[in-house]
């Protein structure tokens, strides 16, 4: 039980250190130790869930920060518009001072938030570049979510630039309308201002085009990631189908060469489950030519099926003397029982 695990594991530790393990209780203690080992998987799953929550919180914070930054941009644009001569001349000296102070404060706060958002994006880009070495499906999902967030940020920046561009266009139109009514001196001054505004307008248009190109590029990358993800899923399905068909072919060929009636009629293997266990154990011991202990074998089998018990496996291997052989290795306190696969020799004897 997760809620009582810490208390239970401390009790188990106390019992073992106190010397409660003996021949009579060894199996019970082994089962409890095995349960403690199974708890590791739960802890890893819990850690993965917390990591996912953390990533979602980061994305939520980044989107909120982007929205705040857009609003700061609009506030700063209001201060800049108020600081232009046609509006500035109508404010009192105290009002102008306050507007200047507010504008400076807003720009500083905006720059701090912008630096923070850019820092988050740089960290994400560095993490993505570090993770490009690996290609698991989880990596594809992380890359896809990062691209989605970048696309959203580019959309917001695009909207902000369009608003500023509209403001510049409106101001240029107003200057054009006022140009015919002003004197020559005012015309010269306004013409200079209009040139400056037109230059700023051209700069904004170029920047807008650059942002739009970046936006299209990110959208294309996002589509590519989605396609790669679909290809990966399709490849996994094909591999599963191939593995399934291969298993069926092997099963059919084994049935033709070694009929089940003959294998089961001799009384050594009593069920299809035992046949599967014999095959898995033989494969495991084949890559362990120096043998393995029954505990090592069972720990491998329990990764495939947690219901498998040591006694069941040991009885099965003892029954099949032409397939498995138990040997003693070591001397004195290091004496150890090891099981080896002897099926090749047993085939000649049978």
What topology emerges from the helices and strands here?
Blueprint: H1 5-18, H2 26-82, H3 85-88, H4 93-131, H5 137-179, H6 184-257, H7 260-265, H8 272-286, H9 294-304, H10 310-319, E1 324-329, E2 336-341, H11 343-349
Antiparallel strand pairs: 1-2
Helix pairs in contact: 2-4, 2-5, 4-5, 5-6
Domain Ecto-NOX disulfide-thiol exchanger 1/2: 150-245
Protein name: ENOX2 protein
Keywords: Coiled coil
Supply the key terms.
two-stranded antiparallel sheet, 11 helices, mainly alpha, Arc Repressor Mutant, subunit A
Order of helices and strands: HHHHHHHHHHEEH
- Say how many strands there are: 2
**Form type:** elongated
Average pLDDT, to the nearest integer?
Answer: 79
Low-confidence stretches: 258-265
The description of the largest β-sheet is: 2 strands, antiparallel
Strand content: under 5%
Strand order of the largest sheet: 1-2
Helix count, DSSP H or I runs of 4 or more residues: 11
Gap from first CA to last CA: 50 Å
- Rg over CA atoms: 37 Å
Classification by helices and strands? mainly alpha
Percent helix among the residues?
A: over 70%
Question: How does this model look, in words?
Answer:
- The chain is mainly alpha-helical and 350 residues long.
- Among the domains are: 2-90; 272-347, Winged helix-like DNA-binding domain superfamily/Winged helix DNA-binding domain (Arc Repressor Mutant, subunit A, Orthogonal Bundle), CATH 1.10.10.10.
- It contains 11 helices and 2 strands; from the N terminus they run H-H-H-H-H-H-H-H-H-H-E-E-H.
- It has helices spanning 5-18, 26-82, 85-88, 93-131, 137-179, 184-257, 260-265, 272-286, 294-304, 310-319, 343-349; strands at 324-329, 336-341.
- It has a two-stranded antiparallel ribbon.
- Helix 2 runs parallel beside helix 5 (137-179).
- The longest helix is centred in the middle third of the chain and has 74 residues, at 184-257.
- The two termini are 50 Å apart.
